[in-house]
Known about the structure:
This protein has helices at about 15-40, 40-65, 70-75, 90-105, 110-135, 155-160, 170-190, 200-215, 230-255; strands at about 5-10, 10-15, 150, 165-170. It is mostly helical.
Amino acid sequence: xxxxxxxxxxxxxxxxxxxxxxxxxxATMAFADLGKKSGFQKDDLMDFTIWILVASxxxxxxxxxxxNLPHYQEHPLEIILLxxxxxxxxxxxxxxxxxxxxxxxxxxxxxxxxxxxxxxxxPLGQMFGRIGCFLNGCCFGRPTTFPIKVTFPxxxxxxxxxxxxxxxxxxxxxxxxxxxxxxxxxxxIYEKKRFDxxxxxxxGMGYAVIRFLLEFLRGDNPPILAGxxxxxxxxxxxxxxxxxxxxxxSKKKIQE
Length: 256
C-alpha cells in the first residue's frame, strides 16, 4: 500500500490521483487515435474528453457520497478529499454519458459513432484506476485463505474495517487484469464493428458481468437488496438494457 507518491511540506501527490491521471491520458491517446482513423477533428475530440473527465469525476463522487451519506453529514469537509473515500464508477459513467451527449449534440457530431470510440477505450483508463485503488488501499476484497492474497497494513481501510490485519482478495488487481483483457477484446471488435452503437452496447454488457462477478469478492460494499450490492443491482439493470440496445441498433442498421 503506497497512498502517497511524493510529499514535501504542504505539497502531497497521491498515488490514486496519479493512476487516475495516467489512465485518463492513455485512454485519451487511444481515443484520439481511433478518432484520427475515423476522420474527426482533434480539437473536437479533446474538448469532448475534458467534458467527460470533469462530469465523470463529479458523477462518481456524488454517488459515492450519497451511498455514504451519514459519514459525510458528520464530516462535510471530506466531500472534496478524494483520498478519503473514493468514487463509484457507475455514477461516473452516468455523468460522463450525460455530459458527452450534451456536448456532441451541441457540436452536431454523431453520438453513436463517437460513443463507440469512447466505450472502446474506457476499460484502458479503468485498468490503471484500479491499480491506483490497490496502492491506495481502497476498494479492498473479502478475507481469504487463497494462495493469492494481500494483507494491508495498520491504518488501511481494510484493517480499519475488519479491526485486524486480515489477508484479503486483491480484487482491485483482479479487476484491473479483467479490464485490460476487455479493452483488447473491444479494440479487436471495433476494427470490424457492423453498426453504430455496437461498442456502447458491448461495453455495457461486458462491464456489467465483470463487476457483478467481482463484487462477490469485494469487502467494502455491503449488500443492499437480496444479498446483492448496489453495483450488482445496477449491473442487473444495465445488462438487459445494453442487450436490448444491441439488438435495436443492429436491427436498425439492417433496415437502412
